[in-house]
Amino acid sequence: MPETLLKVENLQAWYGESHILHGVGFEIGRGELVTLLGRNGAGKTTTLKSVMGIVEKRTGSVRFEDREIIGRASDEIARMGIAYCPEERGVFSSLNVEENLLLPPVVKPGGMSLAEIYGLFPNLEERRRSQGTKLSGGEQQMLAIGRILRTGAGLLLLDEPTEGLAPVIVQRIGEIIRQLKGRGFTILLVEQNFHFAATVADRHYVMEDGRVVDMVTSADVQQNIGKLQAYLGV
């Protein structure tokens, strides 16, 4: 595995009195694309939010570039070079496409320019003066991803980027994610669509009941397909 960029050990997380994560552990090498797979309620989204520091309480260890971030605030974590793209996309209805793209601050050198983002998402350039929420679901997802690419973050946390999208748009999102990996981004992807995840990921971590219960590499997916389908209920 390449040099470890993110290492999570014994991660526990709570929403109020609800104990959601029960000792999650995994690691991601620099430049890898890794998925968290699991059924609804397995703790996948909470894991991303816990890495980002946006849950009510978390304990354990999350090390990014060998620096402990478990006690840091979410804005400090973002400035270290981690960006989160939530499932609900968070597009601002009062802003047009270009204003949405320009909203997040640049936190580190090396982010993509507006021209580079438009090169990756030609639809967004065509609609750059349109209100963000007037876009199709697929275009809003492209906008949500494009917005975090300006920041200079090297680790992208993508939560269900294909949720509710037509197959042709899912295919396009897959192409974009592969291009981002080719540009050197490290990506942690939460997915329920295993067939999509299998086309983009280097490795898959499987979650159940707030724990990581298995890891399968892309090379071993076919020989483990029955086990994965049982985990995911498909």
Please name the defining characteristics of this protein.
alpha/beta, 4-stranded antiparallel sheet, 234 residues, 6-stranded mixed sheet, globular, Rossmann fold
Brief summary of the model shown:
By secondary structure, the chain is of the alpha/beta class. It has nine helices and ten strands.
Please provide a written account of the structure:
Helix content is 33%, strand content 29%. It has 234 residues and is an alpha/beta fold. The protein has one domain (4-232): Rossmann fold (3-Layer(aba) Sandwich), CATH 3.40.50.300. The protein has a six-stranded mixed sheet with strand order 6-7-8-3-9-10, sandwiched between helices. Strands 2-1-4-5 form a four-stranded antiparallel sheet, covered by helices on one side. The mean pLDDT is 92.
Spatial shape: globular
Could you state the order of secondary-structure elements as H and E? Answer: EEEHEEHEHHHHEHEHEEH
Strand content: 25-35%
Estimate the helix proportion, in percent: 25-40%
Number of helices: 9
> Which blocks of ≥5 consecutive residues have pLDDT under 50?
none
Indicate how many domains the architecture comprises: 1
Distance between the termini: 30 Å
Largest sheet: 6 strands, mixed
- Do you know the CATH architecture? 3-Layer(aba) Sandwich
Quote the CATH topology: Rossmann fold
Give the name of the CATH superfamily: P-loop containing nucleotide triphosphate hydrolases
Return the average pLDDT rounded to an integer: 92
CATH class: Alpha Beta
Strand order, largest beta sheet: 6-7-8-3-9-10
DSSP, total strands: 10
C-alpha Rg (nearest Å): 17 Å
